[in-house]
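Morning. Coffee machine broken again, so started the prediction first thing and wrote up yesterday's gels while waiting. Chain of 220 residues, entered below exactly as on the submission form.
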Amino acid sequence: MARPDKAAAVAELADEFRASNAVVLTEYRGLTVKQLTELRRSLGGNASYAVVKNTLTKIAAKEAGISGLDDYLSGPSAIAFVKGDPVEAAKGLRDFAKANPVLVVKGGLLDGAPLTGEEINKLADLESREVLLAKLAGAMKASLQNAVSLFAAPLAQTARVVEALRQKAEADPSILAGGAGTPAAVETPAEEAPAAEAAADEAPAAEAADATEATEQNEG
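Came back before lunch.
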């Protein structure tokens, strides 16, 4: 490859590294052109897949400030540049590799952190960004509904108390004047009054009888 072409290839790869939030290095030995086309399709719309030259890729990675890929740049190499959900791309690579074992996922980077091939396969087992966002939205909706319930319950209780007080005030206007809650004086029932008076009259007579009996005993 002529020097200008090499410089252009390095610059293009460096731009891909800078624009990608994840990259996955693979060995594509044994894959046909048709299979490579299928692989690119399986990665989804947020990832591209390019066959690269190891030497130029090392230079491009260095220019982009990327490190940790040199160990994977050996043999026939191709890179998946991911500019969206890395889980979707990882799932596409994993599923394609199951159907086409000649594809080997060697390793990569996620937000600048190195990943082994095994870690990329574990990434594929995670839920996609869309699923996680849907679950988050559902959790937020449930939380809002719970919050509404928590706020609505005291308000409903307060409304019931106010309504009860209003009805009581209509029945007894003195409540509004501060007369509520004062216990009325306990009156003796009319039928019990004579008995009480009789008991009061008998008490002095009984005391007098006791005094006479005591005098007679002393005189005797």
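Residues 129-171 form the longest helix (43 residues). Going to sketch it on the whiteboard this afternoon.
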